[in-house]
Amino acid sequence: MLFRFYLIVFTSTISLMSFAQDYQENHSIALKEVMVRSARQEEFAVGAVIEKPDTLLVKALKAASVSDLLTVSSGAAIKSYGPGGLSSISIRGGGSAHTAVMWNGINIQSPMNSGVNFTSMPVSFFKNIQVQQGGSGTLFGSGAMSGVIHLSGQNLFKEPDGIETVIGFGSFNNKNVLVSGKTGNQKVASSYSAIGQKGDNDFRFKNTTKIDSPIERQTNAGLTQYGFTQENHIRFSETTLLTTAFWYQHYDKDVQTQMTNSRPGSQNQVDDNILSSLNFRVYGNGYTLNFKQGLVYNKIDFSNPDIPTSNSISHSVSVISEAECRIQINSHYLLNVGLNYTHDYGKSQGYRGSVNRDRVGVFSFLQMKHFNDRLLTVLSARDEASNGQLHPIVFSIGNDWAISKTMTVKSNLSRNYRIPSLNDLYWLADAYAKGNPDLVPESGWSGEAGLFYSKKNRDKATELSALFFFTKVENWIVWLQEGGIWMPTNKKSGRSNGIETRASTSHLVGKTRLSGQLSYYYTYSQLGTDANYDGQQMIYIPRHKASGLFTASKNQLSGGFTINYTGERYYDYINIIEGYLTGDVFANWRLALKSVAIDLGLRANNIWDTNYQVMAFFAMPQRNYSATIELRF
């Protein structure tokens, strides 16, 4: 059945592409511009901080993963099990399940574990990558308690036609190739991207867990990856727009041998992901209707030849249907109302058969402008039920107040929630873990307030900001080991608070553009329980994190370097991993010919040869290099 569904999708996509080519040859129609964007993200994330990676940095990391990009460009704490290994995210002291991940407006978090592997996501597959900080992500439903990662494409009607090929290679026998292209006109436009990657990741490292810290070579860390995306934008008239997207991803990863192992490991995990989305918009006089359909399929095949009985295969499917209406009441008031239905399905050897869950949510947002548009306020509310159980109404209020031409005060207060994952509820008891069907949903509050300064002119731009945030979660779901068995329980509470400061400047000196960014994040995150770790900083949450980015560009040359500091972290509420400082350098040279542009990119990672660990006992590579050759026709 699933194969038949995707055969229909694939056939339809090919037909649309053929239609686009025929139409372009026989017709030429000029239409009014329509917007291809998420109204909720752009218009209702008021009072929230949204971080966007620097364009030169994105270009330098085009052949890398979203995990690599977020590590050096955001305040999020990335938890990575070695290069190419599983990586998850923590924003403002929350867990990975507290960050929603939206792809073209649909939540792609796994219903089984509420997670997403950012290492398997190529940067090149997305034109827009944004990190929305804080609880204003309540707009997107369960799980958006501490932030939202937005991944999306671009308005294809504004993109030039062309073909692009990127060939990359680097240390540890890493090789990758990317092919992408776009074709169409102002009526129908299509794009595609395909990637293949292979690497050994057999880097040398200092094993600090052994006597005299011997130099060893990493084993069982290779990976093979391939995938593709395809998008279509179709205008049936001046007032209707259909967008479709399809994404397939295969990720075969050997689970890296830990530093404490006396012999090479042999564990392996293969992830297969299929995602599709469809958006149909109708633009009326003062209103917009949006109908959305999404499907997310995940398959995980884990094997350990040393323990044959440990092999397991898991499948999950989420089907998302949503309808919303955006109404421009007048020049001061904008209303958005909607209905969401999500069906989750999970099947695993860790379950007793398969499990299903149905979720229904209703939401409404109101944007208001006052005092000559100097004060922008958004009120939002959402209510959701899962399997007939009604959850408390959640809401948020955000404000952007321009107190002068250069100063803005941002604030946000929200009520949040998260329902347990399928693994939390239904995992069968075995020798290592068991689920807990008695879990109740998490709920809590979050808020932030800050001052933002911005001044721009033709040759110079300066931005400064400082804000305070807090999060409090009741019934926090935490997997802890009790009696030798890992089990999720609703602990008493969790709370985080901290500060975020950012400064950036850009100067045009002659024909040279010089830019710099500095950020510092302080996060105090505690779990309140009756156990002996009550009040301790949460595991793998650094109290101090700082980053810097400095770039320069002139004509065909550009380059820069990044600095990242991550403070010490607990990994079991007793023991600590030391903090570390790393730096990367990158450069790009462009040669423009008559019909092709050639870009040569070089990157040196961990230039100070730092010996560090992100996750306990998983080695990270010391100084290493990569290069790319990009051809654009």
Overall spatial form: globular
Separation, N- and C-terminal Cα atoms: 40 Å
CATH class: Mainly Beta
Would you identify the CATH architecture?
Beta Barrel
CATH topology: Maltoporin, Chain A
Q: Whole-number radius of gyration?
A: 24 Å
- Are there runs of 5+ residues with pLDDT below 50, and where? 1-32
Question: How many beta-strand segments?
Answer: 34
Structural class: mainly beta
Largest sheet: 22 strands, antiparallel, barrel
The CATH homologous superfamily name equals TonB-dependent receptor, beta-barrel domain
Specify the helix fraction band: under 10%
Overall domain count: 1
Tally of helical segments: 5
**Strand portion:** over 45%
Q: What is the averaged pLDDT score?
A: 89
Tags for this model:
8% helix, 22-stranded antiparallel beta barrel, 633 residues, 5 helices, five-stranded mixed sheet, globular, Maltoporin, Chain A, disordered N terminus, 55% strand, mainly beta
Overall description:
The protein has 633 residues and is mainly beta. The chain has one domain: Maltoporin, Chain A (Beta Barrel), CATH 2.40.170. Helix content is 8%, strand content 55%. It has five helices and 34 strands. The chain has helices at 2-26, 39-44, 55-60, 66-73, 422-426; strands spanning 50-51, 77-80, 87-90, 99-103, 106-107, 128-133, 147-152, 162-170, 174-184, 188-199, 204-206, 215-217, 223-237, 240-254, 268-283, 287-303, 312-328, 333-348, 354-370, 375-386, 389-390, 394-402, 407-418, 442-456, 460-482, 485-509, 512-528, 544-554, 557-566, 569-570, 576-577, 580-592, 597-605, 624-632. The strands form five sheets. The chain has a 22-stranded antiparallel β-barrel. The protein has a five-stranded mixed beta sheet with strand order 1-6-7-4-5, with no helix packed on it. Strand 18 and strand 19 form a beta hairpin. The longest helix is centred in the first third of the chain and has 25 residues, at 2-26. The chain is globular and about 65 Å long. The model is unreliable at 1-32 (pLDDT under 50).
